[in-house]
């Protein structure tokens, strides 16, 4: 009886295995046609690998891959991982368009203008430096001329003082003389010298001398003294 059951049971198992293998082969061919990656078959299994997408459609979990086996990803997992990889990647430098010929011409024109302005500014700076140096030299020259003028004025004042001191010393000599002797000397003196002496004499000393002089000489002396006092009304004269 068991022999009959084995004999008649064997033909029933083979068609089931054949149909299962044919279905798996059809699933694999369909997966290859539409581009769905296939998971490797676990070790110890017999038959073709099972497509994860097909298992997911049937509500089944794919078998875990053994340690060391290559890991495969589904399209959904790859799409989910792409933004994360993009966030961690180094930023790509933006690409700028090459300038056109017109833009290059404008840039060259601006560069030439900038160089011209820099050259003009440098020239103005150099001119300002030259002007400042000239002004400094002119100020120094003016200061030197003012110093020389003060020295000359001091020398001239000292010379006039010495000259006046000499004339006054001579006047004192004639004032101490007798008027008749002084008048005789005045008749022989030249008019410029006589004017300087008489102009510095006191009136009470000059009057007797003029009275004793030659009338023509005394007349000419009086006219010269009047003209000189008319030209210099602020100056002191005889009788000072």
How is the topology of this model organized?
Blueprint: H1 2-34, H2 52-57, H3 75-88, H4 101-176, H5 179-186, H6 191-200, H7 203-212, H8 215-231
Helix pairs in contact: 4-6, 5-7, 6-8
List the keywords.
rod-shaped, disordered C terminus, 240 residues, single chain, mainly alpha, 8 helices
Could you please describe the fold and organization of this structure?
The chain has 240 residues and is an all-alpha fold. Among the domains are: 16-59, no CATH class; 102-160; 177-240. 72% of the residues lie in helices and 0% in strands. The chain is built from eight helices and no strands. It starts with a helix and ends in a 9-residue tail after the last helix. Mean pLDDT is 74; it is low at 1-10, 44-51 and 236-240.
List the uncertain runs.
1-10, 44-51, 236-240
Output mean pLDDT. 74
SSE order: HHHHHHHH
Number of helices: 8
Residue share in β-strands:
under 5%
Give the termini separation.
Answer: 187 Å
The helicity comes to over 70%
Query: Which geometry do the CA atoms define?
Result: rod-shaped
Structural class: mainly alpha
Rg of Cα set? 68 Å
Counting DSSP E segments of at least 2 residues, the number of strands comes to 0
Question: Main β-sheet, in a few words?
Answer: none
